[in-house]
Amino acid sequence: MDRTQVAIIGAGPSGLLLSQLLHLNGIDTVVIERQSGCYVASRIRAGVLEQGTVDLLLRAKVGERLSSERLIHDGFVLGFAQGTLRVDLKDLVGGTVSIYGQTEVTKDLMDARAAAGARMVYEAGDVSVEGFGGKAPVVRYSQGGRVHELACDFIAGCDGYHGVCRRSLPPGSLQTFEKIYPFSWLGVLADVPPAAHEILYSNHERGFAMCSMRSLTRSRYYVQCPADDTLEAWPDQRFWDELRWRLPANVAEVVTTAPPLEKSIAPLRSFVVEPMKFGRLFLVGDAAHIVPPTGAKGLNLAAADVRVLYQGLVEYYRSGSSDLIDGYSEQCLRRVWKAVRFSWWLTSVTHKFSDDPFAHRLQLTELDYIRGSTAALTSVAENYVGLPFEEPA
Ligand code: FAS
Ligand code: PHB
User: Fold this and answer.
1) What is the pLDDT of residues 347-382, one digit of tens each?
2) I need a labelling partner for 283 at 20 to 30 A (CA). Which of 62, 154, 274, 311 fits?
3) What CATH number has the domain bearing residue 153?
4) Are 9 and 155 in contact (CB under 8 A)?
């Protein structure tokens, strides 16, 4: 039977980053991914990296292109009826965020893994995980017309919200927390210069809209749409018109339109499972938690989980101590829930939940209060740049 030290299920950012960090510390891994490498590399998702995530990518030796191509932002903007409010991250908390697409992070990690001759299994079918309650976990998958068995010491479930690992845990072993939002995000990627030079979140009576970017020539825009909406209901012109309706006038008037490179609808949910560890199986990233993308936390939380897990596994293989991996779930969840809270809060003050005028006025009042309070602005800023990591005891 084939063997490795750590079997990683999923070749998204979590799985690739964990594999790379473990490799650099002499720990053998096999990454098992159900999609093709091309499919994984083509996904359009997150755009904002916390400095902690940047630091971890540099530690993983995949930060060269990131360092030269990223845009560094020292603030972001909230737009609402009373005007716009810039949250000065640099001035308030001495922080910044980096604009560098998840697509690029994934490509950088895939290139590093390939250069290192990593054992990557793409287009794996019928992946199953078992034995993780004991000391001899096994992963099975089909490929090339036969079933493969992989023995390992640990399994990292980096297989996202729809993955197999969480679903493989014994019934009753997990507590699930979930909030489904009554709307989705319709996102467009287009090769046009950004209308706003920083990320802008707009609260409008017609609904939420957002300006982001991937570079100075490639923009990423979002509008809130009904949870059951479809792409067919959104021809390109309707999207551009609605976006401009919902943005502050000085931004709307400089929006450049073009046929989208990509257009997609993503539902919004908050989701957490506890615990994130069961025996020798670890749930990592979206496999364990989902946040509405409003706070730009999804990818960054995944990286934070990887940071805790790789440090714990390095300690285990170097010293035999399992203290860090035994504390994996509790340590990750302390950060996860704070990001869940911030993402929920920023969603709650920027999106249209109903036609209730009282609710909308409360949102505007909260934003107006923040505008006038350095204490409130500082709280928003420290959450947006990413809270400090806990260091191993
Ligand atoms: P991922 O879902 O990225 O990767 C999981 C991998 O596991 C996938 O490659 C999948 O194919 C594979 N897999 C699944 N089941 C498997 C199985 N049974 N066997 C083997 N492999 C399996 N976050 C932000 O911060 N900002 C955003 O704007 C943003 N936009 C998003 C838009 C969309 C449509 C989605 C779905 C997510 C978005 N996110 C955003 C969140 C996103 O960036 C995630 O947080 C990030 O991809 C998490 O990475 P992973 O944990 O690696 O999970
Ligand atoms: C993005 O650029 O895709 C993006 C940026 C910030 C967010 C969400 C998405 O909060």
Assistant:
1) 999 999 999 999 999 999 999 999 999 999 999 999
2) 62
3) 3.50.50.60
4) yes
Question: Which of 18, 325, 304 minimizes the C-alpha distance to 157?
Answer: 18
Q: Report which ligand 1 atom has the smallest distance to the Cα of 15.
A: 52
- Quick one: which of 256, 103, 100, 265 has its CA closest to 191? 256
For residue 50, the CA-to-ligand 2 centroid distance in Å is 12
Question: Tokens in use for 365?
Answer: 């009042």
* Structural domain includes residue 372: no
Ligand 2 site: residues with CB under 6 angstroms?
A: 46-48, 199, 212, 220, 293-296
- How much is the pTM? 0.97
Structure tokens at 298: 């999804």
Task: Determine the distance separating the centroid of ligand 1 and the alpha carbon of 332, expressed in angstroms.
Answer: 18
Residue 210, domain member (yes or no): no
- Nearest bound ligand to the CA of residue 185: 1
- The structure tokens listed for 295 are 């706070």
Percentage of residues of the chain with pLDDT beyond 70: 99
Residue 26 lies inside a defined structural domain of this protein: yes
165 CA: nearest ligand 1 atom: 18
CA distance 54 to 56: 5
